[in-house]
Amino acid sequence: MADDGSGSDVSIPSFLIFKTDADKIKAELMQNRPVQVEMTWSLPTPDDRVEYDVWSVPSDQASKDFFMTFKKLAKTLGKRAYFTPHMYIYDGLRAGCQGANGENQCLNLCTNNGRYCALDPEDDLEAGISGADVVRESLRRLCIWHHYGIDDGIGEKWWDYVVEFNKRCGEDADYFNAPACIKDVYRHSGVDGEKIERCMKDSGGLEGNAANNKLDTEIISQAERGVVMIPTAFVNTIALRGRLTSSNVFQAICSGYSEGTKPAICSTCGNCPDALSCVSNGACTATGHSAANSGGGVSTHTFATSMLLVIALFSGLGVWHYKRTREDMREQVRGILAEYMPLEDNEGADGSAMSSPLDFARGGTTTNLIS
Fold it and tell me: Quick one: average pLDDT of 115-132?
């Protein structure tokens, strides 16, 4: 859109709406009434299986928590969701990292004589993890997915490898690309290391001026998708906004099923703020934690049981108090009667015996009550 001179009034973030809608909002504001507007993005819902992708790199800290926690959710969704991991690789040829004679001009940021590059995580070319290390680990993960995830779209061993790598090798630059550490991760995740290393070589390797078909595919895909930042997640080809978390991605996946095909777990946990806890325990409380693991939350069953016990206790105390009060009252009455009407078997005023204090009222008496 051309700037008509008022472009400086536009700040970021901003969005455009139709004038007919804007007129309604302005009419409400003119009446000094508050207006609340909600902006949402709808997802395509083509069928009963949702496809989702995540673009990242092994050194990315913003996506680390997602990769450490999402495995359980991916397994729970099963084949009703198809996952594809992508690695963000810089095109070194386009960036000018390969010279006219085919030499690498970007130092240790690139492999294959400057063809494939990644940013230095510490911004220190002299020490720490290099861009070339990131490219190598990216290719390794692409090969692991090719062997352990591409068929079912779940990739349980791929998730295991990423979790083990982050725990054992990802934190220390000395271990990030150390062969011994990588072998240890292979062993703990159940990945065949020889098969993966062969895949890395067969795809073109990382040495010389050779092209690598797996890395080339990633560069082409990120251009087609328009990926410009990492981490970025897509659900049914639509980019997700906001922070990359397991709950956000899970909720987006559950929103991507066509009507009537949503898995049961989505009905239970699709709107839960803590999807991982909900899936683990099969329920979601109002605060987003499962009843069994909420800490401060109380389940409906526990609350109802506690209330019944309290009611039964107070009812029992009430009955006991009632009976005790009546017994005390009877004792008091007996005491009064014993003190003020001890006339049974006493003599009357004329010397005759009276069997009851009320005998004078019975018919036939001639006793004069007035002397």
Answer: 92
